[in-house]
Amino acid sequence: MATFLYSIGRFAFRRRRLVALVWVALLALAGVGAATASTATSNSFSIPGTEAQRAFDLLEERYPGQSADGASARVVFKAPEGEKITAPENAAEVSGIVKELKEGSDQIATVADPFDKKAPAVSQDGTTAYISVTYDVSSFELTEETRDSLENAGNDAREGGMTVEIGGDALMVMPETGITEVIGVVVAGIVLVITFGSLVAAGLPLITALIGVGIGVSTITALASVMDLGSTTATLAMMIGLAVGIDYALFIVSRYRAELAEGREREEAAGRAVGTAGSAVVFAGLTVVIALAGLAVVNIPILTKMGLAAAGTVVLAVLVAITLIPAFLGFAGERIVSRKDRKARKAAAEQAAATGEVLVADAPRDNGGTRWSRFVQRRPVMVLLAGVIGLGVIAIPATSLEMGLPDDGAQPTSSSPRKAYDLLSDGFGPGFNGPLVGVVDLKNSDDQDAVLQRITGEIQKNDHVAIVTPPAPNQAGDTAMFQVIPKDRPNSTETETLVHDIRDLGDTLKSEDGAEVYVTGATAMNIDFSEKMNDALLPYLALVVGLAFLLLMVVFRSVLVPLKAALGFLLSVVAALGAVVAVFQWGWLGGLFGVEQPGPIMSVMPILMVGVVFGLAMDYEVFLVTRMREAYVHGESPAQAITTGFRHGARVVTAAAVIMIAVFAGFIGSSEQMIKMIGFGLAIAVFFDAFVVRMAIVPAVLALLGKRAWWLPRWLDRALPDFDVEGDKLRKKLDGKAAEGGSGKEERETVSV
């Protein structure tokens, strides 16, 4: 592996114009594809294998012409204080708005008058009413004229003193990340400048990461309509791609500068940097790809697409790092090193030329990384206990985790959808915003009328039910549909119990009469989704950790190091989940992070954090411990190897972690709760994993293990493939060539920079 990547690095350095041209052409091609692609018109959400999905599919089959993909809205009215919405002047105002909506757009499917006697939509106290609006197209296909017509509905009523708010997905817009995303990239640039002391060296990771992300996100945009990719797919890919793209480039540029400091010629230094640090990048990228692509085992299409799209962006980041970075290093020349170091090198060379002395490399100097590693090795038990106990305390809120999918009730309290949600809840009851849809398959039923009467009667007796609407059969008479309004809010445990009660009733009816009863609707879909996430978490964790464990055994030639890496990851991800619960569910420091409405944690959050954080955590494990392994293989003692690893890796890993945290934290400013939560969760998880687990717990454990850390049974050592990640075979090969009369120019020593 190292030898192969060494050849790639030298080739890219020599043929830098060709390599750069290829990547620029790919960026332009992807950009053209994104610009000319049709807009994605669907954000379809399906959960194969669940009862809610089977009911949804049955409705589409038995009720043709009733599209479930069309947008919908509710225009909610509340009468002025002391008045009724049914008062003649108020009722006339609302009826006039019904007429305006019908005439306001040709995309309208239906507009339901709240005063229609067949289906009244007025609260019992007579103060609140709502207009139901459905459209023939999805929210992404609505024209600006249609949106304006809906947004302006009720302006005259507002002027007359009525409260008018609009909810539903018809006004859904693409999420905005805000200025904080830009701030995250700026912070990354500042950290790179401080780390390298050179604007050119700092600019390379940013430029190459943006090129990789640009190609990835543009490709996703170009394929969004064809592959039905959701709006969050590109956002997650951008988030992950930026973070790993900058980090991977950072590690290779750092190794290149270290090789220059040892006296390598620029092309040779690029080859060795890609051969050594590039090997770590490839394997680190593989762990991220495994974790993201592994989301497919959950068998939820939207999650699979998000994972594969983000994994594709990571692959691009790896390819950019091992090809475009060495090409750009060729263009950068001596400017890749800071001006101060260039002057020091020049002065040392001139002095050596004047005195006739042979230049030798400076002895390795202590830095913050070596001092910290020695501190940890002096007190490994104390550091280990402090790290484990500290993260354990932070993880405590995770025991109170409540999961669900966000609805308008999770919107900021200042937004119109949230105000409409609250008005409906106050006027019609908490369960009105989460109605359940019952579907009865009567094909195998002997007495259909009796079955329907029994079903609705039994459901109405349930303590958690407010209203059951009369069943509405389809034209064929083989299916009936009804609504159940719960007494409790959609995300409550009582509503979840109600869904299971209705399904239990359906099982009884099927065994007695042959009729099948299903429960669907947004609330039931959310419940099924949460349960499927819970059921998939452990198998997914076992698959991802198992595959990565095998991969890390190949990298480190050890059993205990991969085991320690996996356990450390579990500790950091549970602590991060605890922090997410504390902020987004309990509301602690919610104002600081823009959380206006605490509520259940998104069902997808735990499994998504496991997938993404595991991959990123292994990045730091590979980059930091590979350097230790390299030193140990080259003859250093276990304690010396830990110090060497920190001497070369601590500063770079710290910078990489700060950059990744800054990039993820930039998405906390998103207007969408899901993106905000993912950004916070990933940022805090990287903080815990990089600075507590990898920088403290890992060296403490390695210090306690000593030589046992690098133990591998002989039979397993022979069975595992040797990819030479630490570059030992590459170094022996190159040193052998030098001994046989290779270029002395390439191997000469010089003053360390």
UniProtKB/TrEMBL annotation:
The SSD domain is annotated at 199-331
The residues forming the signal peptide are 1-37
Keywords in alphabetical order: Cell membrane, Membrane, Signal, Transmembrane, Transmembrane helix
Residues spanning the membrane: 182-202, 209-227, 233-253, 274-302, 308-333, 381-399, 537-556, 568-589, 601-620, 652-671, 677-705
**Top-rank taxon, per record:** Bacteria
For this protein, the record's InterPro entries field holds:
Acrflvin-R (IPR001036), MMPL_dom (IPR004869), Mycobact_MmpL (IPR050545), SSD (IPR000731)
What is the annotated localization of this protein?
Cell membrane
Single GO molecular-function term?
A: transmembrane transporter activity
Please give the GO cellular component terms listed in this UniProt entry. Answer: plasma membrane
Q: Membrane topology type, per the record?
A: Multi-pass membrane protein
* UniProt record similarity statement: Belongs to the resistance-nodulation-cell division (RND) (TC 2.A.6) family. MmpL subfamily.
Per its UniProt record, what PANTHER family does this chain match?
MEMBRANE PROTEIN MJ1562-RELATED, MEMBRANE PROTEIN SCO6666-RELATED
This chain belongs to the protein called MMPL family transporter
Q: Which organism is it from?
A: Streptomyces odorifer
